[in-house]
Amino acid sequence: MESPFKADILKGKVAFITGGGSGIGFEISTQFGRHGAAVAIMGRRRHVLDAAAAALRSEGIRAFGFEGDVRKKEDAARVLEEAVKHFGKIDILVNGAAGNFLASPEDLSPNAFRTVIDIDSVGTYTMCHEALKYLKKGEQGKGPATGGLILNISATLHYTAAWYQIHVSAAKAAVDSVTRSLALEWGTDYDIRVNGIAPGPIEDTPGMRKLAPEEMQNKYSEFGPLYKLGEKWDIAMAALYLASDAGKYVNGTTLIVDGGLWLSRPRHISKEEVKKLSRVVEKKSRKSSVGVVTTSKL
Ligand code: COA
Q: Which InterPro entries has this protein been placed in (predicted)?
């Protein structure tokens, strides 16, 4: 689908995107590139990075892949430094790297829980922490009064509760908290806007392939209809809005992009029944409250 934004809204910006070689991260890399940004992508697998960077470059986007694991502080520091050497600066950090799999709590070891917290929460914090010196106001490529931007990719699982994802729910709750705290502290001190995006189920992503794989599809649709799946494009457009000047007054927000799915719940009574019964119940309740008033007056 064609982007509704002008092609130069990120002109001159350099974006650094963890998990930018595949899925939602790759779509954000692509759309940021198509709207004028140079793109540094970070990931663990060299061949994925190379293929992604080559695809971006084939569209005329300045792009390069940097190998590293967000769980390792030394990788984070090295890769950010390499990106700054390559592109001259970093304006936007997108934390898209994440880990997920389905498991019930009784089958999830503390180490498995910790692994996802390490990737999603600690990894996000580590990247923010190591990127601060490039993102803050007055740094390389930034004006004395303007800083950069951080976007943390989150989820909606923890707004309520999600089956078989206790680890990811806890990890993303921490990510949202980091988003708000950094928005407060680094927004105030360094002019860095910090926001998040909470995608719903997005089709054709590694996440969906892991959480609703073909092997589980039949069973899955029995217990939880897929509702409307989103597209990677939907998330990239939200990221563009937040990263562009259109979002210049938005700080500390996690934008939910899920078609309203997290609000959905089974209808406990049909519309026809409501129509039929609501007035009857109302009449009855008025009658009984009149009764109460009359009695109390006596
Ligand atoms: N069910 C239960 N436990 C699982 C599991 C599963 N499906 N997959 C892994 N684990 C456990 C392992 O058994 C291990 O725990 P243990 O030491 O107590 O046995 C722990 O998780 C770490 O697993 P390991 O394979 O050593 O970690 P890793 O660093 O190689 O991989 C993952 C990390 C497990 C998160 C892996 O899925 C990953 O790399 N994910 C990134 C990509 C991704 O998930 N994309 C979707 C994003 S939405």
A: DECR2-like, NAD(P)-bd_dom_sf, SDR_fam
For residue 97 and ligand 1, the question of a CB distance below 6 A is answered with: no
Kindly report the protein residue whose alpha carbon is nearest to atom 45 of ligand 1: 99
pTM: 0.93
Inter-axis angle of helices 123-135 and 73-87, nearest 10: 40
| Domain extent listing, the chain | 14-266, 268-298
Q: Whole-angstrom Cα distance, residue 157 to residue 173?
A: 9
| Fold category of 14-266 in CATH | Rossmann fold (3.40.50)
Q: Which ranges constitute the DSSP H helices of 88-196?
A: 110-116, 123-135, 166-190
Single-letter code of the amino acid located at 238: A
Ligand 1 atom nearest the C-alpha of 111 is: 18
**pLDDT tens-digit readout, 50-74:** 999 999 999 999 999 999 999 999 9
Q: Which of 115, 111, 152 has its CA nearest to residue 131?
A: 152
User: Is the C-beta atom of 11 inside 6 A of ligand 1?
Assistant: no
Which atom of ligand 1 is found nearest the CA of 211? Answer: 48
Model pLDDT for residues 120-178, shown as the tens digit of each residue: 999 999 999 999 999 999 999 998 889 999 999 999 999 999 999 999 999 999 999 99
